[in-house]
Design goal:
Helix content: 40-55%
Structural class: alpha/beta
CATH architecture: Alpha-Beta Complex
Low-confidence stretches: 72-89
Order of helices and strands: EEHEEHHEEHEEHHHEHHHH
Number of domains: 1
Number of strands: 9
Strand order of the largest sheet: 1-2-3-5-7-9
Number of helices: 11
Length: about 270
């Protein structure tokens, strides 16, 4: 299927620059095109003195499936490979750079999630300052099931989430809903009506001064930025190495073929 010319739509109203992830053909995966457009629009929003905050939303039933690993040409298929957070070449570094840019962005970045979030998509969500999840949102860290690990995305995820919960979800790959995501700190809040919940948040951001917002954000992102500065090289290398492994190839192939990978242990029937 031919990809659309643009995968990001923009609009500005009352001081809020809305960026809509609009690439349903690959479940809003972080393709090179989308990453490039996100960088460009963030730069424009930073220079626009009328903009107080950026709002990330999405079309379709998926907020973001992670990096578009089909671009790496590994041959395992886009949907399966999007279950992981980076490509086997320079993908991990590019993903880390984008996530750090959002964390370091001098204006607040808010996310509105009403669909599925997987792998690198959870990293994009965790990089945002505030996030609201609707009742249709689901979340999962499924990397271990296909032979890799949530390496690069750990830099924004782990400093902002509950360690015991992450030990569970990183290892099991279980899906969980918006209220659990809020409980463990992956999102700010779960709401039956995310637009209604966002209204006072966006109103508060509109009332902030550029300097006040930038310096306040700097205080709450200090530990996250420290993780990027300390760990980017190591975690990008880990991600690339895992993707080149035999286990990862088997895991992605099994996902595409809708079967259990060769390492899965079959549960004995109950007596």
């Amino acid at each position: 299927m031919t990809a659309p010319e643009n995968v990001l739509r923009t609009a500005t109203e009352d001081g809020i620059r809305t960026l809509t992830l609009d690439s349903p053909h690959n479940r809003n995966a972080l393709s090179a095109r989308l990453v490039r457009e996100l960088y460009a629009e963030l730069a424009r929003a930073e220079q626009d003195t009328s903009v107080r905050a950026v709002l990330l939303i999405h079309t379709g039933n998926t907020f973001c499936a992670g990096a578009d690993l089909n671009e790496a040409g590994a041959g395992a298929g886009a949907e399966a490979k999007a279950e992981a957070d980076a490509a086997p070449s320079d993908g991990p570094t590019a993903l880390a750079a984008l996530l750090r840019a959002i964390v370091a962005f001098p204006k607040p970045v808010v996310a509105r999630v009403t669909g599925h979030v997987r792998a690198g998509g959870t990293g994009l969500l965790a990089a945002c300052d505030i996030s609201v999840a609707g009742p249709g949102a689901t979340f999962a860290f499924t990397e271990a099931r296909i032979g890799v690990a949530p390496a690069v995305i750990s830099m924004p995820v782990l400093p902002r989430t509950d360690p015991r919960a992450m030990a569970r979800y990183y290892l099991t790959g279980e899906r969980f809903g918006p209220r659990e995501a809020a409980r463990i700190g992956l999102v700010t809040l779960a709401a039956d009506d995310p637009d209604k919940a966002l209204a006072p948040i966006l109103d508060g951001l509109r009332r902030g001064s550029p300097q006040g917002l930038a310096e306040s954000k700097r205080l709450v992102t200090r530990e996250v930025l420290a993780a990027f500065d300390r760990d980017t090289g190591t975690l990008a290398e880990l991600s690339a190495r895992l993707f080149a492994s035999d286990e990862a190839r088997e895991g992605m192939t099994a996902f595409l073929e809708r079967r259990e990978p060769e390492w899965a242990v079959r549960q004995a029937p109950a007596r």
